[in-house]
Inverse folding.
């Protein structure tokens, strides 16, 4: 396959990772997350990544609005008498109107309460990946592990994405989100260890031994849980809490104000839930390898990004007895793109 | 446990499955350690586990046979992957084929060994009775498991992944640990039989003896011997002690202590190294720094324009209590790593040693008569350079090959498993020169070898340098 010059050309997408590669092994990996959709393309040596906020905002249609949006190169489409602004631009408009963005996904899967969910998600995916140049190209995308509450909906979510990708000419491959983190970050450890993706809607965990997922699970709480819980106790919109969290939260420092204090409390709560579930799951599982090897844990995802998250997670881990040794807890080299990069590795391996 | 049963591509990356067995996993990991490209590594692992897994091999009652079989399966899979990869060069495909053939031969040998030689091997086990005797090995170094492991494939990806790194067999350490580090290292305290340095290094001195004075000539890579005689060490050579290794477990304290004490007495008697680091991370000075130990035998190393042929004089010898087995150095302990790093920092500061002059014995050792490298193989692969804050010298063109046209044979490949990247780089240098001069690579080698012959004759006679036998030495008592 030749290199795609059209990748990431859409406005609103950010790219990183260096120059385009003309390798014949270019493939795509997608992290379809509640909060963000991240794509990775490239070959085994280097990946270019792009991202869009997985959100939308609706303004009433008027020709003035439409022309203004066009001039500003904002991602939008018209739906009857509404203009749907999607992707990273949606948040700017939500701030402007002091309102909340709407989400096509909730708790890791398509949001059943949002009628526009499928269309918006497909449009966002389309802004990140072009139509396949040759039919049947492999594209791997992340899916969460089924939580108790989301079994049936997960099938719908996954099939919806697969159908869309097939329509675009790809052969879709679903990769567990936690395993994708392992594939991206634990190559030197022979893909043996625990990958944890802390996203907006949920946290996904995979226990991998030589790339085989021996245990996967998720908890239906993530960054959104923190934002909404903090918002509720401090009487602030969750969007504002999210903005503060992403801009200035430092978990290594003492809380400075009410919002900061609430953020610390709910971060600890999330970490406790995650570690408790990890401890419960590994104790219960019959599939884990019999190994004396100490295992690394890699944390990825936007929720794991604040300074101090890793330390708090490690402390919480030490408070519980686990049936294996942990060699290290580390943050992914780029927590926001780890899942997409891992999916890319799977896509490349499955040519 | 088995990880297999047919599984669709759809489910491959999301369905929970049983992990593969420990033995199978270990054998697969032996090859993956040398694969840098994550995609190739994943293809290989998935291929080996998904297509066949442990299967009937799991039922074989003899562990060495099982291990050899697993290993051969891994190589079969790797061969399939490399053959189907359009970007893999013919050389890589041929090398994997060669390793696969070696694995098949080895499997045959191991099966034969298991059937006919077990009683003989059992009778041959030597028990270390301690005391003042020379340390002896509990198991044959070239055991059945070693033979199986020696089928390690040649590096399959050097042409696919230029930034490849050889696998480390020791635990990794972070480059910099937390805490305040003194800007210089000085002696903080001393007592009868020990010295303490400001970086935490404690040196036990109760076994220390004085060796012969250091005295060596440095050669210029083009013009030969330079004027002046040097008396200070300019580098460090890392060794392994090739001695008994008892299990590092509670209940073996007596054996571990006696084994180390016995080893130290032997090393002191033959003045084998300047330092020994035991498995608990204790650093023993055996031969005084200012004097030479008999650690390097015939060896060649170079940095920039300077070439060193008398490594006993020019280098300090630091040995880790460990040994070469199964195509690699057995993992050293974390305590040894930390102590080794502190010792290296101290020696480098004290003698202003350049990082490129901290090298392993396996990289320098040669059979001068046969013009072959790898006479001694300790740390011929897997030394954790990065953890020591040192450049990875496995990737640097090997001076004995690049400067003096030394070569390697099939025995070397069978034992080491693959040439390290610097060896291939050195070969390429010779090939480039041959091309530029419109001559053959053999001719270039001959010229270089005769230069070595000439330079080494000029070097002062050195009784401490081992007399090599005409056959390559795969295992030796002392690294």
């Amino acid at each position: 396959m030749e290199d795609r010059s059209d990748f990431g050309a859409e406005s609103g997408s950010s790219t990183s990772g260096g120059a385009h590669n003309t390798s014949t092994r270019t493939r795509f990996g997608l992290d379809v997350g509640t909060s963000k959709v991240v794509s990775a393309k490239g070959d085994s040596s280097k990946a270019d990544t792009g991202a869009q906020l997985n959100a939308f905002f609706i303004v009433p249609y008027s020709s003035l609005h439409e022309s203004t949006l066009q001039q500003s190169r904002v991602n939008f489409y018209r739906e009857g008498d509404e203009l749907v602004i999607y992707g990273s631009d949606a948040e700017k408009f939500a701030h402007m109107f002091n309102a909340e963005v709407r989400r096509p996904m909730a708790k890791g899967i398509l949001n059943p309460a949002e009628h526009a969910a499928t269309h918006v998600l497909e449009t966002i995916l389309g802004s990140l990946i072009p139509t396949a140049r040759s039919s049947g190209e492999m594209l791997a995308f992340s899916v969460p592990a089924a939580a108790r509450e989301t079994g049936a909906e997960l099938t719908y979510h996954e099939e919806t994405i697969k159908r869309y990708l097939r329509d675009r000419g790809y052969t879709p491959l679903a990769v567990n989100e936690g395993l994708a983190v392992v594939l991206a970050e634990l190559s030197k450890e022979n893909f043996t260890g625990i990958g944890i993706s802390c996203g907006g809607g949920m946290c996904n965990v995979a226990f991998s031994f030589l790339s085989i997922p021996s245990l996967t699970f998720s908890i239906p709480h993530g960054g959104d849980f923190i934002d909404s819980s903090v918002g509720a106790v401090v009487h602030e919109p969750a969007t504002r809490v999210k903005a503060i969290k992403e801009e200035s939260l430092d978990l290594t420092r003492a809380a400075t104000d009410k919002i900061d204090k609430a953020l610390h409390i709910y971060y600890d709560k999330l970490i406790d839930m995650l570690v408790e579930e990890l401890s419960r799951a590994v104790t219960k599982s019959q599939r884990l390898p019999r190994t004396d090897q100490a295992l690394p844990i890699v944390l990825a995802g936007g929720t794991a990004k604040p300074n101090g998250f890793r330390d708090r997670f490690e402390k919480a881990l030490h408070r519980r007895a686990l049936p294996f040794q942990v060699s290290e807890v580390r943050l992914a080299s780029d927590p926001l793109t780890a899942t997409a990069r891992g999916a890319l590795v799977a896509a490349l391996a499955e040519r | 446990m088995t990880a297999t049963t047919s599984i669709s591509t759809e489910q491959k990356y999301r369905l929970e499955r049983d992990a593969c067995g420990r033995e199978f996993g270990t054998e697969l990991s032996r090859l993956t350690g040398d694969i840098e490209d994550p995609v190739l590594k994943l293809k290989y692992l998935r291929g080996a586990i998904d297509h066949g897994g442990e299967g009937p091999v799991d039922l074989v009652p003899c562990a060495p046979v099982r291990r050899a079989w697993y290993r051969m399966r891994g190589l079969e899979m790797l061969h399939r992957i490399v053959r189907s990869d359009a970007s893999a060069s013919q050389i890589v495909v041929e090398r994997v084929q060669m390793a696969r053939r070696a694995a098949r031969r080895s499997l045959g040998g191991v099966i034969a060994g298991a059937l006919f030689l077990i009683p003989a091997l059992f009778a041959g086990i030597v028990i270390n009775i301690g005391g003042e005797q020379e340390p002896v090995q509990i198991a044959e170094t070239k055991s059945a498991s070693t033979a199986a492991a020696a089928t390690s494939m040649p590096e399959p990806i050097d042409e696919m992944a230029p930034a490849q790194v050889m696998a480390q067999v020791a635990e990794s350490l972070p480059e910099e640990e937390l805490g305040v580090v003194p800007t210089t290292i000085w002696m903080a305290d001393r007592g009868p039989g020990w010295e303490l340095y400001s970086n935490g290094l404690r040196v036990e001195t109760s076994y220390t003896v004085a060796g012969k004075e250091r005295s060596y000539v440095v050669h210029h890579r083009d013009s030969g011997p330079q004027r002046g005689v040097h008396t200070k060490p300019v580098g460090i050579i890392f060794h392994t002690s090739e001695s008994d290794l008892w299990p590092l477990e509670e209940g073996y304290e007596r054996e571990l202590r006696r084994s180390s004490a016995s080893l130290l007495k032997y090393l002191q008697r033959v003045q084998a190294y300047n330092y020994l680091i035991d498995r608990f991370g204790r650093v023993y000075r055996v031969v005084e720094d200012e004097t030479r130990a008999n650690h390097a035998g015939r060896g060649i190393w170079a940095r920039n324009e300077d070439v060193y042929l008398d490594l006993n004089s020019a280098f300090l010898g630091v040995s880790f209590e460990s040994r070469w087995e199964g195509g690699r150095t057995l993992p050293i302990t974390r305590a040894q790593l930390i102590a080794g790093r502190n010792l290296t920092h101290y020696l480098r500061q004290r003698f202003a040693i350049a990082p490129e002059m901290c090298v392993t014995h396996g990289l320098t050792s040669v059979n001068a008569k046969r013009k072959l490298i790898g006479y001694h193989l300790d740390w011929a692969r897997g030394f954790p350079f990065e953890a020591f804050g040192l450049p990875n010298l496995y990737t640097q063109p090997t001076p004995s090959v690049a400067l003096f046209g030394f070569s390697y044979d099939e025995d070397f490949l069978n034992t080491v498993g693959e040439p390290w990247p610097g060896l291939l780089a050195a070969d390429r240098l010779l090939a480039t020169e041959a091309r530029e001069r419109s001559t053959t690579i053999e001719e270039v080698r001959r010229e270089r070898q005769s230069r070595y012959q000439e330079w080494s004759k000029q070097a002062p006679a050195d009784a401490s340098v081992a007399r090599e036998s005409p056959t390559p030495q795969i295992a030796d008592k002392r690294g």
